[in-house]
Amino acid sequence: SFEGLPETITQKEKMYDHFYPGQFSCNKVEFENILQESSVDMEHVTLIEGYFSKSLTKELQDSLPIQHAAVIWIDVDLYQSTIEALNFCLPYIGKGTFLIFDDWFSFGGDPDAGEIKAVNEWLTGNNYLTLVEYHNFHTAGKSFIVQTL
Fold this sequence. Notes:
Helix 5 packs parallel to helix 6 (about 115-125). The chain is of the alpha+beta class.
């Protein structure tokens, strides 16, 4: 969004006092400069402004040249943002897709907060998918391999 985290932090997430609305804000020009200084090939980058609830649209899906994702990296911190990201990515997820969650343990493994809560609910609504645990990384990350029924 370039505006930082949205206002959709749940009461449960607020109890952990890790994240707050506006956290991680950065203007677009500053962000582009960071990418260029890090030698990111901007030919392979598309920046999309706006919170997920407004920017992750069907029109955007239709415009992307993606049929199947090998790897999807979810680094969105919060429950609502995770749900929105997963729903947007669903058409690209299939058997063998790696789903990587950067903030899986950000709420101490609490099943009622953050990415864990979102994934559990999302899987209930998409019960033809299962996740096989793959690898934990840094202090909060976890990855999975998608299997389909």
